[in-house]
Amino acid sequence: MRSNRTHFARLYAGAAPLAILLGMTASPAFAQAAATPAPAQAPVAADDTTGPDVVVTGTLFRRTNTETPSPVTVLTSDSLAKAGITSISDAVRSISADSAGSISTGFQNGFSAGGSAVSLRGLGVSSTLVLIDGLRSTNYPLNDDGHNAYVDLNSIPFSLVEQVQVLKDGASSLYGADAIGGVVNLIMRKHFTGLDGRVEGGVSSRGDAGHVRGELAWGYGNYDDKGWNVYIGGEYQKDNAVSVQDRAFPFNTLDLSSIGGIDGNSADSSLTTATINGVVVRTTQSDLNNPLAGGAAPIANGTYINAAGNVANYSNYTSLNLNCAGGTYTVTGGGSRGTACRHDNTTEFAQIQPEQERYSISGRLSIRVSDNIDFYLTGSYAHNQVFVKGAPRPIRNTQPFGGSPGLASSNPGIVLPVYICSSGTNCATAADRTLNPNNPYAAAYAADPANGAARIYYLFGDIPFNSEKNNHVIRFASGLNGHFGDDWNWRVEAVGARDDLKLEQDGYLNIPALLNAINTGAYNFVNPSLNTNAVRSRIAPTVTTKSYSSLISLDASISKAVATLPGGPLEVSVGGQVRREVENNRNQNAALQTYGLTTSSAAGRHTVAAGFFEINAPILDILEVDASGRYDHYSEGFSHFSPKVGFKFTPIKQIAFRGTYSQGFRAPTFAENGATSSYAGFSTFTPPASFLAAHGGLAYGQAYSLGAALAGNPNLRPEKSRSFTLGTIIQPTPWFSFTVDYYNVRKSDAIVAGPLAGAARTAYYSQTTLPAAIAAVAAVGPGYSVNLVDAPDPNFPNALPRVLIINAPFVNGPTIDTQGLDVSAAVRIPIAPGVKFISKIEVTDVLNYDFNPGGGAPVQKYSGTMGPYELSSGAGTPRWRGNWQNTLDFGKYTFTATAYYVGAIKNVAADEGPTNGLSCADNLYGTGDAFCYIRRFINVDVNATIQVNNAFTFYMNVGNVFDAKAPIAPSAYSGTNYLPTWHYAGIIGRTFKAGATFKF
Prior knowledge:
Structural class: mainly beta
Strand content: 35-45%
CATH architecture of the largest domain: Beta Barrel
Mean pLDDT: 84
CATH class of the largest domain: Mainly Beta
Radius of gyration: 30 Å
């Protein structure tokens, strides 16, 4: 029978010779070499044009070949296995077209720690559509950067994936919103009989990064003979955590002073960094009942409180080595202020890789209802648990929350009062008041409590800080497809999915409870080991956030060959879709009572109705034209029509040309247009040299976390796109092929969070007084204002204070332009009987990635830089990415080596500093020519397989076989001096995995 089941493809023995050459069983003709290909295992067909019909992502029609006008990369389960890849995330993100905004599992500091997503063409995770067998799934309930929606690749079962098809072209004309950058379509097994599985274990050469994985699938019923088949499969994977302590310099510290960098860890030069030992300095307290009412300037030298409960004054304490495993340092600023305990909070507490555990179960029932109708039902449940550890929460010289709208009352942090009492209120006059044992100045200032407060710099080392994310995704899909009459083909499919996320966060400080504990003396700062768990739980209770998203969709289409053209049948297909999407992510910090907890929230629901069509016209034997279009209407009140046209021209068998033109759109996410949605995001920012100089070169003027506060805008319009591709495919001989495709994408009305955020920061720091700085930010544009500033610098109280949060709007209007080249080549050479050599290479060159904020502001250029720094993990836009795989196939033995390449990245970002700040003077790290470039990175994986018999195969994989080290990226905020998105293998180092597959 012929079925018009849209967007999925079965693997057939009649795949094209070129597809076999590329290690693909259903690749587009002369298509891109797979990003992580390996030797194909399917038999070679004589001619691609004589094989059974298949469906390829980006078209509704089955074809006798897989050549389409759009460039498509196809990765098979076999090629992925031979490359040592065991997750959807690693498979998709290895493709060279994945660029700026891509999210790796190693990025633990973001909103979506533990999640993973792809960003084709660097247009953002919300502009790349992920499908499963051509149908949508629901998004992850937490939006990246507080507003970007995406499908978490880590929540999709991998073991039953048959192909990963990546359409590197706009596809809104068939799939609707979110397909501006391209489409990732995961093709699952359709029928399966027997029993097969996999067991695998691994570890790094350092003895950590433990990895275990198991898969098992069972299927029964020969579909061709019996007309039915059922299978069920499960998988389990666990990856152990890796600590920063377990890696060598410079990836275990933020102190790069020994190699000419900045010490970003300690308070070696002032009193602004919290440590577990605690430092206090005497100051004033205007409200004796309010620990937030301390004065800005210190009155005397600091006092150190050690972990054993002893109090030592800097002026007469000379040795602290007893409780200072990291040694000591001299406190300066306003003259010598004594000796204190040295700490490196990054080394002591940071993590490289979170502990992650995944398991899933999937199944499918296929029934031939009649000779003309097929039915299927699929279901899956996936569980993903991520455990992230971090540094304990601090009290330091920073306002937790609040301050008056006019900023006049922004206070300098938390102080310990002279008196405490059981009620925690009116302690200055309470009958049961006592001197505060945590305040070393209490006795001396019993009669003058307003001048005896102790401002404290303290890290709550006795309260572990961690988060645990439990993500559960359940998904069902069912459909009927068939044909009738004179070659009418139809299909009706429904899908429902729900993603439930439970986020438990420990160690965040509840401000009211902490203030009460300070006023009552309940928490012991001098000797934290004496604190009870009940006290710790009160001031840092577990914060549990439950969020969910859901999707229900009904799709249908019908197609028919309506005429015969010189090149073949003229086919027409029409269809429609109705879907309902819901998201509910309510943050637990709406009242701003938990210090440091995200304020991100999003909630909404809508219904989308769409109609679409496609026409395929083989005008001549050498010329095929394809046209499609889709009209979407959203219940929010907006609509959009997306057209596309493409061609394939094959003047001779050895050469073909292809091209497409399309328009697309991305609807605003619930976080972007929700009336109740909001978030405050933070990234590392280095103030200009003038600001550092104004603060004496001390820690107050160095890199810190600067936030942007945004709110949903119900008036946002959808983003729109225009894109075109043009490519050529050359196969002069059966053993060699070469492709090159040019792409050009323009996104207009782009929805961005504070497009002039960099200009606002620059405007603030261009001033020397707070009123002038506030006015300068407001002048940047509508919606820009100073939300919160830090307390004055204790050492330079009259200098401009740091800005902590800047209000910035979600807006339409900016334009993003990107263009580049995808190049691939492949050769397959028979060396001897039963021995062949296969080599494939794929490279993407991002010629430009330009952001035009509009309003007369200069264009920001990102290609080859760390820009856009505000997007996702801030990993930038490497101009070059590529991979090269070489395989020796001896029949039962194979040996494969795959090299991955990421080009050098300039450590500047036009969205972070001065206009077009692309010179080393605008180095994000603030060191000029030093550390201005992040060098290129190359790592090589090798994989060997031994087929014992038809049932058993053993394999071994060595990742990063040469133990290549990640290049230093000191401005990275997603990792400790490295970029997890591109250089993760260089941090984990050499890894070993061994396993076996079996099939009965």
